[in-house]
């Protein structure tokens, strides 16, 4: 009697499970449409996955576990050790429903988690790459600046030499300017002295000419000059020079 009731209950639960199984894909139709049939594992793979999920180390031990569990359940039901009631059916149906939901949502959730992980990994990789590039650029910049001290020393020495040359050039220009000014002053003094000498010579010549002219206007001087001239002529005649 208990086994018959259990069989009827299992039939009723299987009918409910079929309805729930047909309703669950409808609810999950939107996310399941994103995946093609090619992405679903084949029946052999599903069977292997179910077998692998069973306890045991070998196929014989897993088969023995299934047979033993089925025998214990049948014996418990037949001996009325366990009475199948509505709570059992609800429990089995709920377990089957959650199992189906878990199987249906497993792949989308797995792909979503993998996508999220890959996105985070890509962000971390890009950030690490950018950080590496920034550090490399900074290292290159520092390496380019390693000769700044030597270059600064060279520029300082060059600027010092340039300042020295500019000072010498300024000194030479000042000396040349002073020499030109001295030459100008000396030339002016030379011209002044020359003008003074010329003025003195002109005054002296004028005084001599005036004195000679004055002496020539004197009658005594004129007579002396005439007598001297006659004496010289007579001397020349005597000497037969003329």
UniProtKB/TrEMBL annotation:
SUPFAM superfamilies: ATP synthase B chain-like (SSF161060)
A GO CC term attached to the entry: mitochondrial inner membrane
Molecular function GO labels: proton-transporting ATP synthase activity, rotational mechanism
Keyword vocabulary terms for this entry: CF(0), Hydrogen ion transport, Ion transport, Membrane, Mitochondrion, Mitochondrion inner membrane, Transport
Subcellular location: Mitochondrion; Mitochondrion inner membrane
Subcellular location, principal: mitochondrion
Superkingdom of the source species: Eukaryota
Family named by the database record: Belongs to the eukaryotic ATPase B chain family.
Quaternary structure, from the entry: F-type ATPases have 2 components, CF(1) - the catalytic core - and CF(0) - the membrane proton channel. In yeast, the dimeric form of ATP synthase consists of 17 polypeptides: alpha, beta, gamma, delta, epsilon, 4 (B), 5 (OSCP), 6 (A), 8, 9 (C), d, E (Tim11), f, g, h, i/j and k.
Function statement: Subunit b, of the mitochondrial membrane ATP synthase complex (F(1)F(0) ATP synthase or Complex V) that produces ATP from ADP in the presence of a proton gradient across the membrane which is generated by electron transport complexes of the respiratory chain. ATP synthase complex consist of a soluble F(1) head domain - the catalytic core - and a membrane F(1) domain - the membrane proton channel. These two domains are linked by a central stalk rotating inside the F(1) region and a stationary peripheral stalk.
Descriptive protein name: ATP synthase subunit 4
Native species: Thanatephorus cucumeris (strain AG1-IB / isolate 7/3/14) (Lettuce bottom rot fungus)
